[in-house]
Structure formats: structure tokens, C-alpha cells
Amino acid sequence: MNAPVKIDTDTDRQAPTPADLTITVRDERFNRGTTPRRWWAGEPFGTAWHNALSATFPRGEAFFIEAVKAHREGADPQLAEEIRAFVKQEINHTREHIAFNRLAEDHGYDIKAIDQRVAEMLALTKDRPVIVNLAATMALEHYTAMMAAEFLANPRHFKDADPEVRKMWEWHSIEEIEHKGVAFDTYLHATKDWTNWRRWKLRSLMMLIVTFNFFKNRCHDTLELLAQDGITGWKAKWGLFKYLTVTPGVVRRILPAWLAYFKPGFHPWDHDDRALIGKYEGEFRAALMPAE
Fold first, then answer.
1. Which residues pair with 5 in a beta bridge?
2. What DSSP letter does each residue of 81-147 carry, written as one string?
3. Fewer Cβ atoms within 10 A, N terminus or C terminus of the chain?
4. Which of 150, 25, 140 is nearest to 92 (CA)?
5. pTM, 2 dp
6. Using only C-alpha atoms, what is the Rg of the chain?
7. What is the pLDDT of residues 78-101, one digit of tens each?
């Protein structure tokens, strides 16, 4: 079934979300069989980095959902539809990364420590203002959208990866691009009585905090997984550095998009990259479900 949500932005929302945007829930399933231990081109560094990322997604995406839902009251009908579709997409992402994480564990990787660290960090957010959680979600959603666009624009990132795992990351990337403005538009709604300066200050500060924690924790997690593969010390650190900044260099490549986040008046849809979705959409047409 195909019932994408068409977002009609012909309202005074102060957001450049495309008027013809559709957010489509693709109920795909992956990785129910087996995959190679080093599924990323038979190489440990890309495998460990993405395994570490995936280990954070089940709890992380549940946090995103709650942060956005906490501010849906009073949202205009279009934003309310965006939020519903966002929630459905994120629920499916959680399910598929749980399945993928299980395969990593089947190969002997202990990722429970990563999950536990994420749980401990999220526990610290329960007593802070909900708008701060939304600002953190907005920053992390920008990270996922930046990486998603890079993965789809440059197929070499997953060119030699296990085909089943590659499809999962492509599917996830499509939907991250599609809903990249939802948390941001929710933030605009939740802070509609704020000054532009106050809005900019919070989102910029949270991006700096998120960036520091993201790389500190993901690099720690990746090095931990590499140690489980017998790769430690300078070899592990240099290999991870090369993977992230040289070849394929995802961190180096997303730097301009990261800097753009600090521009006054920034919005995720300042750059319309839906053409990337069209490159892969046909692979997933058989797995569409109603977003309502």
C-alpha cells in the first residue's frame, strides 16, 4: 500500500519546507539471515564505525520520537502530519537496527556496553527542559541527514559492502533525508514566541555540545569494537582517522553542511536534496505502508 503524507506548507510557518514534500513510510525488513563479520568491504574500520552507530539507534531514535512528540500540541495540521510520519519512520528504523545489532552480536561483538552507555546518557536528560531535548534532537537529526545525503550521493561509501546491509543503510538514508526538517519545524513551532537570537543561540550551543559528545562517544565505541577484533593502539586510531577523514572521508565531506547549521536563518531544506531519494526509491516501492 502507498499512502505517503503530502506536506502542504501553504501556511505561515516561517519554514522553507518544500510545498510538494512527501514523507513516505517504507515498511522494509533487512538482515534476517546472515552477514559477513566484516560486512563493510571486508574491512574492519568501516564495519566498526557503522556497528557503533547502529548500536545507538534503538534508544536514540526512541529519544527523538519523544522529544518531537512533546511539542506537537497546537501544531498546524501539516506539521502534525509530518510528526506522525516521522514517528512511523523512526519506529521502523529502530526495528531494523535491532535486527542488525543482533547479527553483530552473533558475530561475537559485544555491543551491550554501547547500549548501556546510551541508556545512562539519556537518563541524564529526563530532568532537563524538554525544549533542550528537542534542540539536541534537531542537531542529531542534522547529523543523520548530512551523513545520509553523503552516503546516497557517493555510492562508494557502501559500494563493496554486503548487499543486504547496504540496502538497509540506503533505505534508512532515504527516510532521514525525507524527514530532515521535522524536528526543526517542530522547534520553530515550539519557540514561536522566542526572538530569533534566542532560537539561534540554543540551537547553535546544542550543536556544539552534540558534536563534542557524538565524536567522543562514537570514536570510543568504535575503538572498543576494533579492540574486539584485535586492533588496538595507534593502528586502530590511525585506521579510524583515515576512514573518517581521508577515504571515504565522510566527516571531511559533511563539514560544509555542518558549518551551514550555524548560519542565522538556516533551515534543513535550504538545500533540497530529494533527487538523491529518486536514485534509490524504486528499490523499496514494494514495501510502502500508510503513514496515517
1. 23
2. HHHHHHHHHHHHHHHHHHHHHHHHHHTT---HHHHHHHHHHHHTTTTS-HHHHHHHHHHHHHHHHHH
3. N
4. 25
5. 0.90
6. 19
7. 999 999 999 999 999 999 999 999
